[in-house]
Amino acid sequence: MRKIADELGFCGDKRWFAVYTTCRHEKRVAQHLQQRDIDYFLPIYRTQHRWKDGSKVMLDLPLFPGYVFVRINASKRVGVLEVPGVVSLIGSGSRPAELPDFEVEALRAGLDPTKAEPHPLVMVGQRVRIRSGALAGVEGIVVRKKSGFRLVLTLSLLMQSIAIEVDGDDVEFVEASASQMEPTRYQDHYTQKSKPIAVNNAVQI
Question: N or C terminus: fewer CB in 10 A for the chain?
Answer without folding.
Answer: N
